[in-house]
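Look over both lines:
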Amino acid sequence: MVAENEWELFRVFTMQYLLAFFLLLNLSVGHAAGVTPVEMDEGEDLLVPEKLQLTTSLDMTVLSKLSHENGVPILLMFASEDCYYCKRLETEVLGPMRLAGIDPQRVILRKVMMDKYDTLRDFSGRERNAENFGIDRGVEVVPTLQLTDATGRELVSKIVGYQTPGLYDDYLEKAIEASQALLKRK
């Protein structure tokens, strides 16, 4: 019985240590990029600070050209205007990554607003609205991240949803690295 209690205490301590480590790591990345933490309540309408906002793309052929020229994958964030978790993802992870210089050095990072009905040009040059573009790409909920090559072919599985910044950063980094490796093998 004593051994079980000691093991449980060790497990709880380890989880608390890891949580603190990932929290500090996430804060240090944001601090290095000049980003201050944003207090957010789910009930509030979160505004993404201007310096953290991703560029919204309406022309995938332009992204295709940039991807081809730089030899890097395209990372599309599918979002909607009223999506609280989309705004958190942009504020806590993707915006700081962009400020740290990831775009266009390692990935072309852009946002597609699914609830905007502006005309969008897809990877094959066809004009359509962003919602249909996302649906045709298999996006069912937002936020969804998709890493593609210059032709729009998905390189790794989509990353759907957002909750825990520290763990998400690591998962996204691994997906970017895998996408880069796939492009180099072409």
